[in-house]
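Work Package 3 committed the consortium to producing structural models of liganded targets before the mid-term review. Because experimental data for this complex are still outstanding, the team generated a predictive model from sequence and the ligand definition alone, so that downstream docking and mutagenesis planning could proceed in parallel. The input record is reproduced below exactly as it was submitted to the modelling pipeline, together with the SMILES string for adenosine-5'-triphosphate.
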Amino acid sequence: MASVEIEQVRKRYQAERVVDSDGGERPALDGVSLSLAEGETVSVVGSSGCGKSTLLKVVAGLEYPDSGRILYNGQDVTYVRPQERGVGMVFQDYALYPSMKGKGNLAYYFEVHDRSEEEAEQRTRETAERMGIGFEQLLGRVPDTLSGGEQQRVAIGRCIVREPQLFLMDEPISNLDAKLRERTRVEIRKLLRKFAITTLYVTHDQQEAIFMGDRIAVMRGGRIEQVGTFDELYSTPANLFVATFVGAPPMAVIPATIEAGRVAVPGGTWQLPDDLAGSLPTGRVRVGVRPEGWLLDTADGAPLRVRHRERIPTERASFLYGHLGEANVAVTAPVDYPDRSEVSITPDWERAYVFAADGEEPHHVPGVLELF
Ligand SMILES: Nc1ncnc2c1ncn2[C@@H]1O[C@H](COP(=O)(O)OP(=O)(O)OP(=O)(O)O)[C@@H](O)[C@H]1O
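The resulting structure, written out as tokens with the ligand in place, is given here.
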């Protein structure tokens, strides 16, 4: 197993004109640093085009960075060829050799590396045992006759048989149907934990990132905005982007004006607790509130017109969705909360965030609460 250091990596594609939302050009990776401890799984999330796959390719050696370094176990491998790095890669398309049975797919590596048939045989047998129930059966079939999930299992087995020091996975289950995805992700996670393989796991699916990763790296525009456990990202986001990216339904962000300890928002005014009023600037800000961070029907509530309700399947609660001025708001309400078209809402200030009116800097983050 390897520890991995990604140090200040920059990468600009030759033919590339990556244009930011503000119209500026930027490289695909713009100074990315990230450390993975031995055996750790780090999920990488971010919207399309933010550089997730490029990061994986640079770590794999499929692309070289323009500057910065990649270290495995403290050794600089930045310009070492992929074949010599001992990485196992699993991508969205399984890329199994179609004419070979599962077993051939696993043994191919030994063939091209001039290793003995006995070794290939033994390692394949060991891997089948470690991969668990039913894997042996898959080895006797060609990829065409396997389901997507089964193909992905073989692809993972093909990586494990090589005893990689590092696993790189890029949306490995995103083209499976929902049920299979659920099963396969449980299986992948079990394997990663069992073998304690250091893993970088790219996905655009937040739930998957939470499930797979010991930690999660949130990327945007070629940069890592924050790395942490889900609870850290959720409770103490580094900026407004992470605050709204992590969590579903997302945090409501409401333009407001603070004056003399009171917060004016569309349709109402909230009273700040004294300690918070003393620590916040006056003037324009943005108040961030997660669905569970609202109090309903308090005296100084602002009116929220309820557009629709959604039952939370695993809890005795619903989400109420509506608008406060222009801001989208989701509120967690008890399941037996009366069905009304308007409710009045106030932030529970122990759970509320305050951000600058412009930019993304947080003025106030409530800290880690007992969330779940
Ligand atoms: N080979 C290439 N040549 C030129 N530009 C590229 C190349 N590969 C990626 N890019 C550009 O670099 C940026 C980052 O791409 P990358 O594939 O790393 O993003 P991503 O976060 O993995 O996106 P997605 O979630 O859509 O797969 C994108 O703007 C993309 O268009």
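Reviewers should note the following from the model. The radius of gyration is 25 Å. These observations will guide the Year 2 experiments.
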